Amino acid sequence: MKFTISRADLLRSLGHVHSVVERRNTIPILANVLLKAEDDALSLMTTDMDLEIVESVAAKIGTPGATTVPANTLYDIVRKLPDDTDVVVESGKGDTTILVKAGKSTFRLGCLPTEDFPKMTTGEDLPVTFDIPASDLRTIIDRTRFAISTEETRYYLNGIYVHATENDGVDVLCAVATDGHRLARFEMPLPDGARDMPGVIIPRKAVNEIRKLIDEAGDAITISLSENKIRFSFDHVVLTSKLIDGTFPDYNRVIPKNNDKVLEVNPALFAKAVDRVSTISSEKSRAVKLTLGGKTMTLSANAADSGSASEELEIMFNADPMEIGFNSAYLMDVTKQIEGEGCRISLSDPASPTIIQDLSDTSSLYVLMPMRV
């Protein structure tokens, strides 16, 4: 095998695929990237057995062939090479090593047999396929992934639940994430072809990897899925992931229906005030108390070792004065997603779930559990 490729093109593709590789691997081949040179293109593939990325990039192929080399080592080498150089990669003797040459630099890397490299995809067709604009997929992820649980025991919450449903007689694609303390829901018009999709839980790692890739994606992304796999295809990239095998809880049961105390506030000013006041709050609880009354809200925090802080904001509030506490980090995560100038916070009492929405955009809904303060 021998091919020549620009350093910029190789670095970009390795940047896309190498992050799938876990730094600590008990199976040596999973630390490698599969390089396949043929038909004027270089294909790069990495996998962790649950997630697989394949990307093709133009290259000048001298001798077709394939090999596997340590992904992170190759990425680090290419990253440190001078800009505007061409990289020549060729097999060494016995195909147990490869040479990487650029300018006056030469590196020799050990290889492992390509037949040992595991492949998740065997060309199978996934029964449901639809296209979605890259901007919409980006929004789905950004509006929900911060609420994904990191608690491994409740594995079925370690991803985004995506399903087709109906809202007020309109077919929608709905994405939900929750960790038990907060919930994020986003809805958009159901894409053509998605009506028969099963409800699926996309794992956190797949969500994070596809989010990194779609910043450079073209207009449309093709999503194909079955009950246990999902595939994202765009430009010259194909990402395939296993889905979480579990049942997502009935999230509608935790969305309150009768929160009649309504608070309206500027989300940008609110987020900055929460950030400032929470500087004093304890690292463990991150608690901030909101004291609501008429046209003002006082945010306050107290910590035995740090002192106290308070700040006042102008608001609109339609109920009797009340106090309620929240985790400040959770409040900021939600308010960062609100792009309009108005934020509606619907409350019931200091111990019940609270709803937060963008006044100018009903596609997103957030639920926060209050804290005792």
Can you describe this structure?
This protein is of the alpha+beta class and 373 residues long. The radius of gyration is 25 Å and the shape is elongated. Strand 7 (86-91) and strand 8 form a beta hairpin. The protein starts with a strand and ends in a 5-residue tail after the last strand. Helix 3 (134-144) crosses helix 4 and helix 5 runs antiparallel to helix 6. It contains 6 helices and 26 strands. It has a 9-stranded antiparallel sheet. It folds into 3 domains: 2-116, DNA Polymerase III, Chain A, domain 2 (Roll); 128-253, DNA Polymerase III, Chain A, domain 2; 255-368, DNA Polymerase III, Chain A, domain 2 (Roll), CATH 3.10.150.
Brief overview:
This protein is an alpha+beta fold and 373 residues long. It is built from six helices and 26 strands.
